[in-house]
Specification:
The complex is a heterodimer of chains A (114) and B (117). With 114 residues, chain A is mainly beta. Helices cover 0% and strands 49% of the residues of chain A. Classes of the chains: A mainly beta (114), B mainly beta (117). Chains A and B meet through strand 6, strand 10 and strand 11 of A and strand 4, strand 5 and strand 8 of B.
């Protein structure tokens, strides 16, 4: 079956540090890949997505590149802010399969200290 | 317009009782999804509806769980004879449609936090 593996947290960084959160996947079809973010007390929000190999998704200074050869979709940001503190989920979906249900990683809790 | 709403936001119940969780999707969204977020399991996909139909119920954790959707809008997730391991946040999401050739973004509600004592 499909699965997503992402680095366990919490990840604690200082403001303006460089961020990488690793994500790798296995999928039976050709998946679309996503990063979702859950800020404290809020619901899940789509942060960025990529639907085919070598696509780069980007939003709010975050980027992730769909690497088919390494089955990875690592999330990066050049300079994090305190407001980026949240839980980040890597996810995949195989379009056309009928359900489009998302398969999520377990989430990485990111803490940014001033 | 309004986003996905869920009620109640918090529910505390005693082991063995039944609970109903409600989801109101975004107006016009035909597809609706239920997920469960728990400490040990992360986010699990439970079931989806296209219109009022749920083609695949295999993601439901046990036969104590059931879900229905009426009028192509509101959905309820019912858990019978609740157990402590059912404690989790239950998330609902909706999207315009499902099963097409490209992904339609899922919009999530704030969730219902269920605590079974």
């Amino acid at each position: 079956g499909d699965s997503v593996t992402q680095m366990e947290g919490p990840v604690t960084l200082s403001e303006e540090a460089f961020l990488t959160i690793n994500c790798t996947y296995t999928a039976t079809g050709y998946p679309s890949l996503f990063w979702y973010v859950q800020y404290p007390g809020e619901g899940l929000q789509l942060l960025l997505k990529a639907t085919k190999a070598d696509d780069k998704g980007s939003n709010k200074g975050f980027e992730a590149t769909y690497r088919k050869e390494t089955t990875s979709f690592h999330l990066e940001k050049g300079s994090v802010q305190v407001s980026d503190s949240a839980v980040y989920f890597c996810a995949l979906s195989v379009p056309g399969g009928g359900a489009d249900g998302l398969t999520f990683g377990k989430g990485t809790h990111l803490i940014i200290q001033p | 317009g309004a986003g996905v709403s869920q009620s109640p936001s918090n529910k505390v119940t005693e082991k063995g009782k039944d609970v109903e969780l409600r989801c109101d999707p975004i107006s016009g969204h035909t597809a609706l999804y239920w997920y469960r977020q728990s400490l040990g399991q992360g986010l699990e996909f439970l079931i989806y509806f296209q219109g009022n139909s749920a083609p695949d119920k295999s993601g439901l954790p046990s036969d104590r769980f059931s879900a229905e959707r009426t009028g192509g809008s509101v959905s309820t997730l019912t858990i019978q004879r609740t157990q402590q391991e059912d404690s989790a946040v239950y998330l609902c999401a909706s999207t315009l449609t499902s099963g097409g050739p490209s992904y339609n973004e899922q919009f999530f509600g704030p969730g219902t936090r269920l605590t079974v004592l």
